[in-house]
Amino acid sequence: MFSRDSWSEIIEALSSNWFRTLLTAFGVLWGIFILVILLAAGNGLENGVKQGFSGMATNSMFMWSQTASKPYKGLPKGRRYNFKIGDVEAIKQSVPNLRYVSPRNQLGGFRGANNVVRGLKTGAYNVYGDYPEIIQQQPMDITSGRFVNYSDIKENRKVAIIGESVKTGLYDPGEEVLGTYIKINGVNFMVIGTYKKKSQGGGDAEEAQKEIFVPFTAFSQAFNMGEVVGWMAVTAQDGASITELKSQVFDVIKTRHSIHPDDDRAVGNFDLYEEFSKINGLFIALNAVAYFVGILVLLSGIIGISNIMLIVVKERTKEIGIRRALGATPWAIRAQILLESIFLTIISGMAGIVLASGVLALVNSLMAGMDTSEMMFLNPSVDIGVVFVALIILIVSGLLAGLIPAQNAIRIKPVDALRTE
């Protein structure tokens, strides 16, 4: 499209005052560098946060019974009620597109009294009565043995899966765990597995391992819970939203327990899908802010290039007049100025991308030797699509930077240009 002479002229024009060109290019370099670093930092934060949700069924909610806040069918407000095991099947039958409905019961806790004994060692731990599906709803790695299965549920087996921190607290180093017995509130349970899992929501990773899981039926039998269900974990099918389905779940509970249909306080819940959607929305906003800030910084560099190109056009007024006198068309003059502007913008911008890539490579190499399993920042990077977008931004910016100088150049009359000293 352009001759060799045109490119030689561009190189000569930009290198005639190399220090001025370097300072001008730095503005664009810095703008692209900031843009890439901000986007990579946003991705690193997103990767770290989503790592905390890895393995968890995010399309889930957790629900528990609270106090009825309205009278209904002769029953007073302020009364308490409990979920029942029959509610689980009723929810499964009445609400479509549910994947799991897992009842849970719980006792103890690390802030409470010691509730688990093994020999002379004691500890205070959270103990959960669960169904096998719960392992699909919360992240957990079985490090030895197995988790609860439906044979355990049907036969009311008193078996337990303990966390790595429970193992450390109740067993000596190297001691065999599987097949041994622990006593939970005076009831013996045989250990059939150990697990390790991540903390959620920025919690203490150590406390996430201080939990014990036993079959729901054995829990109810051992601790006289009867048909009572403490709370439930409910997960929707892929393609459905638990946020949209939860009102139907609440309606089933309200109908079965004679709760006023408009009583929104009787059923407590934590909608994990809703919170996860908010987090996704936050990262979209962060990316938008990164683009906004990066483009503003880049704009300052573009203004610098535009100013320099105006100076260059002024310095080459006589040259432009001669070219016009020899028959150069306005488009040829405009194209030459625009090409110089685009060339300078792209070269400086790509240098910024290379510099940012080097910084990100250094950060990732430093993090490679670290344990990032519990970090909120992981693998800061940008994909090739971001580089492509940056290239488009550079080309458009170069056109904008050279547009006004190019228009000024073609307004110069050959006679006036030749008179210029």
TrEMBL record:
Intracellular or extracellular location(s): Cell membrane
InterPro entries tied to this protein: ABC3_permease_C, MacB_PCD, Macrolide_Exporter_MacB
GO cellular component: plasma membrane
Keyword flag Oxidoreductase: no
Bilayer topology annotation: Multi-pass membrane protein
TM regions (residue ranges): 21-41, 288-313, 342-364, 384-404
Pfam family, one: MacB_PCD
Annotated ranges, domain ABC3 transporter permease C-terminal: 292-414
Domain MacB-like periplasmic core: start-end pairs: 21-249
GO MF annotations in UniProt: ATP binding; transmembrane transporter activity
Keyword vocabulary terms for this entry: ATP-binding, Cell membrane, Membrane, Nucleotide-binding, Transmembrane, Transmembrane helix
Record-stated family: Belongs to the ABC-4 integral membrane protein family.
PANTHER family referenced in this protein's UniProt entry, alphabetically: ABC TRANSPORTER PERMEASE YTRF (PTHR30572:SF4), MEMBRANE COMPONENT OF TRANSPORTER-RELATED (PTHR30572)
Protein name: Multidrug ABC transporter ATP-binding protein
Source organism (scientific name): Cochleicola gelatinilyticus
